[in-house]
Amino acid sequence: MSENIPQNILVSIITVVYNGERHIADAVKSITSQTYPNIEHVVMDGASTDRTVAIVKELNPKAVIVSEPDSGALEALNKGLRMVKGDVIGLLNSDDYYADENVIQKVVDAFIADKSAKVLYGTMQMVDSADGKLILRKGRPVTSEDSGLNYLKAVLASDIAPVVTMFAMREVYDTVGPFSHEYSVIADGEYSIRMLKLYKPFFLNEVVIIMRSGGLASQNIFKAHKDVYKLLRRENIGFMAAFGYYLYCCVLTFFSRLFLGSGMRGIVLAYRRLKGQL
């Protein structure tokens, strides 16, 4: 995009879904209720066998829907990135929804206000998929302490530049390339690392996304930890540091699940408050 950014930026939002009838309505409504008018919603559906496509058509007749078999979410996402028409691109999971009706307007205003910005991100709130209670907050600006392993850990933990809150110029996605199948469980974090090597992220101090628990990484958490170790080694982090972080993540996950499973949720929430995540 040129330095003369138009006031009527087209914002494309990609949603990848398969049999998502339970929550897809919330995602679609959070887009159709936006005060910013110039939005393209592209829904990449993996040939759902439930009412997903019908719900999207009913709630947003203008949505671009591609419903066909695919090898998984990453293939669908990469296909969506190739076909969107927007100047700015955002990703919205089918289980998630925008925090309020002004999110996209705030994003557009931020791009217009700072013409050097190519990548913007904000904060997210994760809620329990069962009862809707807040269980986690993520997203903060980059600080002087964020370098080397600390920086990579912050990105992979979605403390910095969570992909679900990110909006980027089309040229960014064209330059960075497709999401990687090699790191399928942590593909979003791996993508952020590649992106942030090339572009300075700008922090929008707003809650952008409400995210439900139970995503791919949490369902395959120990595979995610292994992928993080492999990625850290790729990024030239030493064996001891990378393996030590892998063990730390495994132990933390074990005790978190132990406490949550035994009804001691308060201990996990207290730890997250201590870490500034609540």
Element layout with pairings:
Elements: E1 11-17, H1 24-32, E2 39-45, H2 52-59, E3 64-67, H3 73-83, E4 88-91, E5 97-98, H4 103-113, E6 119-127, E7 134-138, H5 148-156, E8 167-169, H6 170-176, H7 187-198, E9 201-212, H8 216-219, H9 221-234, H10 239-261, H11 265-274
Parallel strand pairs: 1-2, 1-4, 2-3, 6-9
Antiparallel strand pairs: 4-8, 5-9, 6-7, 6-8
Tally of alpha and pi helices: 11
Output the CATH topology of the domain at 1-114: Spore Coat Polysaccharide Biosynthesis Protein SpsA, Chain A
Q: What's the Cα radius of gyration?
A: 19 Å
CATH class of the domain at 1-114: Alpha Beta
Number of strands: 9
User: What level of helicity do the residues show?
Assistant: 40-55%
The structural class is alpha/beta
What is the CATH architecture annotation of the domain at 1-114?
Alpha-Beta Complex
CATH superfamily of the domain at 1-114: Spore Coat Polysaccharide Biosynthesis Protein SpsA, Chain A
Distance between the termini: 37 Å
Strand content: 15-25%
Low-confidence stretches: none
Shape verdict: globular
Order of SSEs: EHEHEHEEHEEHEHHEHHHH
Largest beta-sheet characterization:
9 strands, mixed
Q: Determine the mean pLDDT.
A: 90
